[in-house]
Amino acid sequence: MSHRDRRLLGTGRIRRRRSAVALGCLLVLASTACSGGSGPTPGPDDRGKAAPGPIVVASGLDVTGSGGVRQQLIKEWNERHADDPALQAKLVELPGGADQQRSQLLGALQSGSAGYDVVNLDITWIPEFAEAGLIRPLSDEDVVDTDVIAEIRRTSVWKGRSYARPFNSDVGLLYYRPDRLNAAGISLARQPTGNWTWADLGASIDTLTANRSRSGVEAGWTAQLDEYEGLTVNTIEAFESVDVQLADEKGHYKASPKSLKEGLEELRQRARKDRILDRAFSSEEPTSLADFAEGRVAFVRHWPYAFGALQNLLPPKDYSVNRLPGASVLGGQNLAVTTDSPRAAGARKLIDFLTSQESERCLLDAGFAATRTSAYDGTAPPCYPRVAEALHSAGPSPSASPDGEGGSWAQPAMMRAGYTFTLSEALKHAVQRPRTPYYGAFTQVLQSHVHAWLTSDGADAEEAAAGLDTALREAFSGH
């Protein structure tokens, strides 16, 4: 299928999805307009006795694996409320990628067919779900929690109202292979720091590729540049690094062909064929991590969970991590109560538990990025003992053989402390993707145009920017 055909197909899907959203708003909202109103109609739990349990939590798959930390936290909650059937909770994990999960949740909440009480939403979906009246705004006393990192807390707010509680966060990081750098003659003093620029990274990549016979790499670095959300993230990071912003706080489009051209040229510089692995343009998270672990590249842009995953693949001396040069995009999920939940009071109590200081420590220990400052500075209470024990039992064993067969390597305490500091600093300086109720349309348009441009030899940046500007202007306006 050609890039043009894929764009046309994507446009058709976007139009059908918007029609479904519009119809859903008419079906679901009796007193709240799709454009946002005074608030959702109170559910049964707000008017009287709550419906029997369980409290159903819908979430994407847990990157910490089967029986991961989210499931362990739900189990801990259930054990603490074993005598109250109405407060028992159940986690439902949705299959597929982010776009598929979003479509499933929208369809389920609009039709009222799934019976979800709590939804774990990607931070980019909050404006859309809030605007459609599918999630409840929080009360005023729930809005401000100064322990939550400020930029993360902002992801739960839309049009001045808070609709969710930050659960786990995410941010782009730069992973690198000291063994490959040392082999190429790049000394420790020249290896990544928190103050690195893309020029610094490019210089090291050039040294690596000029000494392939010594470094053993096929290319300097890789990233997630396939036509999916990873490409959106990498594109926004490039754009933000040259101060190209696509939308204002209210979701209104603000870029121009001139600024888009500058952003595209920055992205092209990062994705130069002489610096990046060829298959980066068809890579998602698992592929890019495997290429890094197998030594095909010395650098990879990846998420925090990769730090935990790498201890199953490499000895600690062979990988390290630092902040990404320039802008780094914020990711993560927030917990919200659905408008039609008949168990809203219990759902709010469950969210309070899942986002507590102890729970955030559990999330950090399991490999997620925590949302609270206290999880990083040591002032938070430790993870719940039963959850900590479950995570420890499922964790890596330090008994691996030297060649990596038969087990995993434990990460030294100093290494983990350094990673925790790096992660907290990256979160404090992270940037957000555009906040708009039309995020699904926006990201599909961006992915389609950018991927076609990156994979077309000799494509003109000015022409690509003009086409992208027209398409984005339409997407942000909801047409």
Summary, kept brief:
This protein is of the alpha/beta class. It contains 21 helices and eleven strands.
Describe the overall structure:
The chain is of the alpha/beta class and 479 residues long. Among the domains are: 31-170 and 331-394, D-Maltodextrin-Binding Protein, domain 2 (3-Layer(aba) Sandwich); 173-220 and 282-328 and 418-432, 3-Layer(aba) Sandwich (D-Maltodextrin-Binding Protein, domain 2), CATH 3.40.190. Helix content is 46%, strand content 10%. It has helices at 3-28, 44-47, 69-80, 98-111, 126-131, 140-143, 150-154, 178-183, 198-210, 212-215, 229-241, 257-270, 285-293, 305-310, 344-354, 357-366, 373-377, 385-394, 413-428, 439-454, 461-477, and strands at residues 55-60, 89-94, 118-122, 157-158, 161-162, 165-171, 173-176, 221-222, 299-302, 320-323, 330-337. Strands 2-1-3-11-6 form a five-stranded mixed beta sheet. Strands 8-9-7-10 form a four-stranded mixed beta sheet. α3 (69-80) links the parallel β1 (55-60) and β2 (89-94). α1 packs parallel to α4 (98-111) and α12 crosses α21 (461-477). The protein starts with a helix and ends with a helix.
